[in-house]
Amino acid sequence: MSLIDKFRKPSREDFGDYELNKLRKEYKNENIEVFASSLKYLVDLDIYNNLFEVYSNWEEPVPLLSDETAEIANESSLLVLAYENLSRSPKLFSELIDYPKFYYLYPFIEWVYSMYLGRRLISEDVKRIFKSDIGERIVFNLEDFDKVEIISEPTPEFFQKLRKLKWKDIKTKKFHSKLEKVLRFFVFENFGFKEGAFIAKQMEIILFLAGCSAVNEGKEKIDENDVIRAYMALFKIIETDISKLIDKREK
Description:
Blueprint: H1 3-7, H2 12-26, H3 31-44, H4 47-56, H5 67-73, H6 77-85, H7 99-103, H8 105-117, H9 123-131, H10 134-141, H11 156-163, E1 166-167, H12 170-187, H13 193-216, E2 221-222, H14 224-239, H15 242-250
Parallel strand pairs: 1-2
Helix pairs in contact: 2-12, 3-14, 4-8, 6-11, 10-13, 13-14
């Protein structure tokens, strides 16, 4: 180490590596390396930064409380069933997976769709997303959502099983939080309110997807591998030009 390196101010990447090494020592999970390499890939290619720019300048293509929004939402049986079967009350803290955990999946898809289209979305774009099977692909196949040909249909029972999920143990719950810290350090050089909100929405999605992983595997508790798989699914969504999947479905 040179004298300059010794006294230079640590970067957020340095802090990210520090947290990553702590994680490796505490959790002997080989999939941590897959998580780290996938995250660094998105950061190094500026894909994560490009998505954050879309989020930072976002303008809703359809007014959220309009009749048109309700009409578009009803195009997705996945969203309808989630609304009908997941708890919508924030007071029910005993339930790990509730409707707010699911809610941000479709807005997140909209941001990614806009990023790959290279323009702001209009209402017709949103209709294409909700009429497509992109949500079902992600929920039932996670990081393999772009490979499957036969897509599972959502059922009330699937969401009812999500409601009953618990953490495997407190160590698994902490694993979920510690991965978020690594993500935050690597993605942002500066961290403020908008960056915090961007990450917070993703953490909701990741918990929901971890629950999907557990239910898809027939489990009643979320373990470390479910959490990792949820992150890998999120990273795969970000790096995939989902406009091709959505357009293919429409055709």
